[in-house]
């Protein structure tokens, strides 16, 4: 198999390759590991391998089937449990009904069940029969960071694939390939700080995701605004273009809160914020009240726009232009 998109985990990759070349892939896998350990990457590779029509090692990555899976648009690869809401018994029953409908275009139909630990006993039981004696074309990939939360009956019907953290040197080599344009030091820091969980390092290097990242970016943005360095501010806004809308909305929320803190600071009001926020708010408090109010207005308007389908590029452009003009 061609599994090099998954870092580390060499023994597991050898085991899967041998299995695929021998008796063939199993119809159900339980992929476990901490957040950032590569569960979704492995699930995507396996799903592509199931529907690949290329010759040679699977997944070939180039046939229409592989391309659709890797692009997340294959009609026979169904993902559930990725909306953060937990999987309900109704969803399990839906899978059970859907699995008996033959695949659209691929020889197989693949169900990727993320956060499988969020299924309660009824939801798991609804899947049990399917795992035991579902149609031959159906394959199931259950992903979890807590396999112990699954019923023993469910676990025993899946083959276990436990992902391990990746050693530092290997993590670094993988990150260099993935991010060829990044500074070596940035890569080294990300590899050192991720505890072998490359998903974390990727998040950090992509500079987005997570409320912590949004709060930190808001402090940078407001500090640049406070300095009045328009060029640096514009460059920073451009660097935010690769963030998704949700993350940008969080950043805008944090930025507005900082400007409100700065206004409270000017008014001599006590603040209920952490030391880092307080320092940024103190710097921003040196701006005029008018600038602070106008900047907050710009940020709030963009925050509203982020609710709609306004692209990140447009938001960042408007952010740069709006803050450049505020108070001017
Ligand atoms: Zn292929």
In short:
It is built from 15 helices and five strands. It has 328 residues and is an alpha/beta fold. It has a five-stranded parallel β-sheet, with helices on one face.
Distinct small molecules? zinc ion
Instruction: Please tell me what the overall shape is.
Output: elongated
Helicity, as a percent range: 55-70%
Largest sheet entry: 5 strands, parallel
Number of strands: 5
How far is the N terminus from the C terminus?
60 Å
Structural commentary:
55% of the residues lie in helices and 8% in strands. The protein is of the alpha/beta class and 328 residues long. The chain has a five-stranded parallel β-sheet, with helices on one face. Helix 2 runs antiparallel to helix 3. The chain is elongated and about 70 Å long. The N and C termini lie far apart (60 Å). Zinc ion binds next to helix 3. The site of zinc ion (ZN) has 8 residues, from helix 3.
Compile the SSE list and pairings.
Blueprint: H1 10-21, E1 28-32, H2 39-51, H3 64-70, E2 77-80, H4 89-98, E3 109-113, H5 121-133, E4 138-144, H6 152-156, E5 159-162, H7 168-178, H8 184-193, H9 198-206, H10 211-227, H11 230-239, H12 245-266, H13 275-284, H14 289-307, H15 312-325
Parallel strand pairs: 1-4, 1-5, 2-3, 3-4
Helix pairs in contact: 2-3, 4-5, 7-8, 8-9, 10-12, 10-13, 11-15, 12-13, 12-14, 14-15
């Amino acid at each position: 198999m061609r599994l090099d998109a998954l870092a580390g985990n060499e023994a597991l990759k050898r085991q899967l390759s041998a299995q695929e070349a021998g008796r063939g892939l199993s119809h159900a896998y339980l992929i476990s590991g901490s957040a950032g350990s590569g569960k979704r990457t492995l699930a995507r590779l396996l799903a592509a391998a199931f529907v690949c029509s290329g010759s040679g090692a699977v997944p070939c990555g180039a046939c229409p089937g592989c391309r659709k899976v890797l692009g997340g648009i294959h009609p026979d690869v169904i993902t559930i449990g990725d909306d953060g809401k937990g999987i309900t018994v109704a969803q399990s029953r839906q899978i059970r009904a859907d699995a008996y409908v033959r695949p659209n275009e691929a020889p197989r139909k693949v169900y990727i069940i993320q956060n499988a630990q969020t299924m309660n006993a009824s939801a798991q039981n609804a899947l049990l029969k399917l795992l035991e004696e579902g149609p031959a074309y159906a394959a199931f990939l259950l992903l979890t960071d807590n396999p112990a939360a699954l019923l023993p009956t469910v676990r025993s019907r899946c083959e276990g694939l436990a992902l391990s953290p990746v050693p530092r040197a290997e993590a670094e080599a993988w990150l260099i390939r993935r991010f060829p344009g990044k500074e070596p030091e940035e890569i080294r820091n990300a590899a050192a700080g991720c505890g072998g969980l490359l998903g974390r390092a990727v998040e950090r290097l992509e500079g987005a995701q997570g409320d912590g990242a949004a709060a930190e970016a808001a402090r940078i943005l407001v500090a640049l605004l406070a300095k009045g360095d328009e060029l640096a501010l514009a460059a920073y806004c451009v660097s935010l273009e690769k963030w998704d809308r949700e993350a940008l909305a969080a950043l805008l929320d944090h930025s507005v809160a900082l400007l409100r803190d700065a206004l409270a600071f000017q008014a001599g009001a006590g603040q209920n914020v952490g030391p880092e926020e307080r320092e940024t708010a103190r710097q921003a408090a040196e701006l005029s009240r008018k600038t602070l109010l106008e900047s907050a207005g710009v940020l709030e308007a963009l925050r509203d726009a982020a609710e709609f389908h306004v692209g990140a590029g447009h938001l960042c452009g408007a952010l740069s232009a709006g803050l450049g003009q505020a108070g001017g």
